[in-house]
Amino acid sequence: MAELLPLLRERRSIRVYDDTHVLADDELAVLLEAARWAPSAGNSQPWAFLVGRRGDDAHAAFVELLAPSVRRWAPAASALVFTLNQVASGPEDDALGYSDYAQYDLGQAVAHLTVQAAALGLGVHQFAAFDHDGLTALAGVPPHWRVTTGLAVGLAVESDLVPRTRRPVPDLAFGARFGDPVPLASAVVDLATEGLDGVEPTLGVDVGLRSE
Ligand SMILES: Cc1cc2nc3c(=O)[nH]c(=O)nc-3n(C[C@H](O)[C@H](O)[C@H](O)COP(=O)(O)O)c2cc1C
Description:
Number of domains: 2
Distance between the termini: 44 Å
CATH topology of the largest domain: NADH Oxidase
Low-confidence stretches: 197-212
Shape: globular
Mean pLDDT: 89
Strand content: 5-15%
Strand order of the largest sheet: 1-2-4-3
Bound molecules: flavin mononucleotide
Number of strands: 4
Structural class: alpha+beta
CATH superfamily of the largest domain: NADH Oxidase
Order of helices and strands: HHEHHEHEHEH
CATH architecture of the largest domain: 3-Layer(aba) Sandwich
Radius of gyration: 19 Å
Number of helices: 7
Helix content: 25-40%
C-alpha cells in the first residue's frame, strides 16, 4: 500500500519553540537551497527571502512587526523568514521575466523549505498576521516585489499539540467534471487518510489577519 511520506504526515505548524535552539549556518543555507530548487513557471524563480535569526538586529526588528497573535509564539523560534514574490518585471536589462504564477511559485518554494526543515528535525509555522507595509518600508522592498508571508523556523517543544484536520479527498479531487467522484475506490481513499482525521478544525482563525 502506498503511504504518505512520514515527513508530510508528521509536519505541523509549530506553536511552541525551544528558545535556546540556534539555527546553524549550514541549516539555514540548506533551507534556502531547498526553496531555490523549487520549480517555477518558465524558471522565473520569482521568490526572495528576508532572514533574521534570534539574537540579531533583523530578528529584533521583525518581532516588532508581528501581530499580537503571532508575537505570542513566533519570537522564540530560531529564525524569522519573510517571503516575497515578484509582482512585475524588474528594471534591470537582465531582469527575470514576470509570470502570473509568481505567488504559486513562491508557495511551492516555501513548501520545499518546509519539507527540508522537517528532514532536519525542525518545524516551520507560516503566518500572514504581520505588518506587511511596515516590513516593506523597513526592508526597502523594491516596487516590483511584494512581501507575502512570514515563517517561524525552529525546534519544536510542543507537548499540547493543536489537532489537525483536512477536508476529505472526495471533497477536493474530482473526475472529468467539478463535483464528479474522483476515480478511486472509496476503500483506497479511506486508507490514504487513515489516522489523520477525526480532530477539531483549526482553519479559519487566522486567514486575513494581516496586521492584527
Ligand atoms: C499563507 C498562510 C498564512 C497563515 N497565517 C497564519 C497566521 O497568521 N497565524 C497563524 O497562527 N497561523 C497561520 N497559518 C498556519 C495555518 O493556520 C496552518 O497551516 C493550518 O491551520 C493547518 O495546520 P498545520 O500546518 O498544522 O497542518 C498560515 C498558513 C499559511 C499557509
